[in-house]
Description:
101 residues; mainly alpha; 2 domains
Amino acid sequence: MGWSSATDYVAVGEVVGALAVIGTLIYLGRQVSHSVGLTRTSQRQGIMEAYGSWNEMVLSSPELLAFLKRMEDPANEISGEESVLARHFNYRLFTIYNQFV
């Protein structure tokens, strides 16, 4: 009887161990899912803040607004100063974009 009961305890221990592993995997899955949700929310907030700052930059500069309007017409050519403005404007835009890619 002693040997039979020992194997029974081993079998019960294996079942309990397997249940503990399954419970741990479920817990870790929920934690990872929660963490991913928080990261996505934080990233969306950062994108909206960057977009807001970019919009503020454009809207606060009448020269930039006029320049962008001229750029919409393919027949217009830009001057050397406007080329510098376009380069810096694009740099700022791509910097914002690269922060979230």
